[in-house]
Amino acid sequence: MPDGGVAPDVLMHAERISKSFGTVPVLFSVSFDIRPGEVHALIGENGAGKSTLMKILSGYHQPSSGQILFDGAPVTLPPDGLAEDLGIVLIHQELNLAEMMTVEENIFLGREIRRRGFLDRAAMRADVAALLDRLHLDIRPQDRISDLSIAQKQMVEIAKAISRNARILIMDEPTAVLTSAETETFFRQIERLKAEGVAIIFVSHKLGEVKALADRVTIMRDGQWIATQDAAELTPDAMAQLMVGRELSDLYPPMREPDVDAPVMLDVAGLSSPAGVRDVSFQLRRGEILGFAGLVGSGRTALFEAICGLAPTSAGTVTLDGAPARFHDVAEARDAGIVYLTKDRKEKGLLLDLEMTPNLTLLALDRFVRRGLLDRAAEKAGMERAARRFDIRARDPKVRARDLSGGNQQKLLLAKVMESDPQVVIIDEPTRGIDVGTKQQIYHFIAALAAEGKSIVLISSEMPEVIGMCHRVVVMREGHVTGLLEGAAIEENEIMLHASGLKGRTTHD
Amino acid sequence: MTDQTTSARPASGGFSIDFKAWGPLLALAALCIFGFILNPAFASEGNISNILTRSAFIGVIAVGATFVITAGGIDLSVGSMAAFISGVMIMVMNGLVETMGVSVATILVGVGLSVFLGAMAGLANGLLTTRGKIEAFIVTLGTMGIYRSLVTYLADGGTLSLNFDLRSLYRPVYYGEVLFVPVPVLVLAIVAILGWVLLNRTAFGRHCVAIGSSESVARYSAVKINRVKTLTYVIQGLCVSLATIIYVPRLGSASSQTGVMWELEAIAAVIIGGTVLKGGYGRIGGTVVGAIMLTTIGNILNLTDLISNYLNGAVQGVIIIVAVWLQRGQWKRRGRSGDGG
């Protein structure tokens, strides 16, 4: 769309939107428009800026520069979901419903119909029943949200949006958690909304779906607008090409030649877990960096949580350094020499209210005990050593983990798992939300660990990272391994094709 | 995540008091000065010794509660548990007088039984919350009712009294002194020191803090959550048993009114002392100061006509709220809501 003239049928037009968080820019002059009755897909790799753009379009973030035209007039969207009053509704990926309340109560939450100060339940129930009927949903107003399936919950969110006269519906990966049958129902719903003139913006990593559902597609990369094209003109392959096409710089350390004769450290055969892992097999050699690529929710985290005793297994065997390994908790896994570094620094990684030292030593606390008591001097020395080795910078050693920058938190977390002196290290999304300088440092730390003889699993949704760092790459989709890539096959198109189910083994169940 | 870091520390240079650490002690000092002004008899050696001795029950129980609360739990059953253990101890010791006579051995059996019952009661609370996956509040609310009703049943609605001769023999455990220090004060001091070492200088204590701070982080960091949490309730049970052992010789009886409200006083002492109710931060020293403060308030009201003694609970309530408000530093950070970034 050319700058300047806004076509008359444009409902909302975002013009040269830029956004920085603190000093970190995440969006660079992105323009985007949406028409009534249009389905507009937003695609790009993780970190491309899609979520930020969606949040700006729905008022949750304010742009640092640029403006938004709504119905042809410049607007400043109100924050915290108040843009819903204008008819702009964002449906978050983690749905936003009160689980213990009924469908009817949720749909009217915050704007209940009252009569003489009391709730008019009959009127609300009738309204909701009519709405659910109109949307052809097989849900009753009095159903409790916690009793519904995820797909039904999503439909309730959509019904809620419609009941608020949504004109623009923005959805973050709406089909990521749906089965294929549910996805079909979802598609029909979208078609219906479209026919009513609702504009729909959605993010998806499933390029086949994008092709099938969208009228237009906008591709983003590294916070920049790359292209907006009619979906009819684009093949999924072409989309993948546009999403990735980028040169790799020396962000990554030089790749050390893998030693094909190195002993197998971790051998997983036919592993399944009710947490969402089905029949996964792979081998990891000493000194190797094995990448795990795939979309968010493809079962990579669940796989390694199952291996490390954090999730149950239902079938298969794990062999660690020649010995059978079935761990019931993290302590057993740690003692056997395998540790998992979580992608969720704040919820699962660090004790945010504590200082750095107790965080550093927590996983390997037994090593800091002498005659039953904690050896505080040893802890302090350990902290100094770790700060040097991993370049953890804090203004004050007594600073709480919460007040460290994301990069320093990640380095502290890496230092923490290394305190237990593991042989196999599983690193999940090591550079999520981290600036490029720290990223580079972390890549070098990981490469150095591999060179020391540690075996590394690198789970990442950022493809350049997987390509730049890994000797071999396993691609997963829906809990399965869809491909094992080596050598020249480790490139973005190939990974994307496997990850999105266009290539390799897939199932339809 | 950005590099925007929000520092919660007061930036004021020079003289500033760390209220979190010293607040409870300062408040106690202020309370003592206040008591002395109202009635100089407050500062007499006898009165101070009296306050400390009376603080010992709640103090010992509260040290245990510090572990439970630091690890993110709560135990409401301690008062009833104390009453129940007292009742069983008295009945068993009375029964043994016939076979074992009025002897130290009889008392030792009673003491051993108390320790066993305390540990078992704590274990039950712990296992029900961890293995049973029931909220600690509910589990201990339930056991609170059970123990209270059991002691009422054992006493047949009345009072269980310890054999008179046995009581005379047992008496020094509450009324005696070692090197001029009353035995209960000595017990409180020892329990506090052991508690402090356990919480601040051992892996177990660090694990309690980690669990209270974030159970999921603790789980991912190889902390055996169920075991540690259960142990905190066992420690609590042992502390209750210890408090009971020094309580029984004081009155020589147990009834349905024994230990009423002790659980709330113990929790209040813990919170006044600076431990965070939702867990993750515990202070044994603060807890002991908190327990002494609560007793001091009652004592001051006894020594003055200024406020009716019947208002003891009200004054305690006000002081608890003010103490916690001061600690949280809300008065310093007014108007600063939310964090940037």
TrEMBL record, chain A:
Protein name: ATP-binding cassette domain-containing protein
Residue span(s) of domain ABC transporter: 12-247, 255-503
UniProt KW keywords: ATP-binding, Cell membrane, Membrane, Nucleotide-binding, Repeat, Sugar transport, Translocase, Transport
Pfam name, any one: ABC_tran
GO molecular function, one term: ATP binding
Gene3D superfamilies listed in its UniProt record: P-loop containing nucleotide triphosphate hydrolases (3.40.50.300)
Cellular component annotations (GO), alphabetically ordered: plasma membrane
Keyword ATP-binding listed: yes
Membrane topology listed for this record: Peripheral membrane protein
Organism: Oceanomicrobium pacificus
UniProtKB/TrEMBL annotation, chain B:
Native source species: Oceanomicrobium pacificus
InterPro entries per the UniProt record, alphabetical: ABC_transp_permease
PANTHER family: ABC TRANSPORTER PERMEASE PROTEIN YPHD-RELATED-RELATED (PTHR32196), RIBOSE IMPORT PERMEASE PROTEIN RBSC (PTHR32196:SF72)
Broad class of the protein's primary localization: membrane
Protein name: ABC transporter permease
Transmembrane segments: 21-42, 48-69, 102-124, 175-199, 230-248, 260-277, 284-301, 307-326
Cellular component terms (Gene Ontology): plasma membrane
GO MF, one annotated term: transmembrane transporter activity
Subcellular location, record wording: Cell membrane
Protein's membrane topology: Multi-pass membrane protein
Pfam families: BPD_transp_2
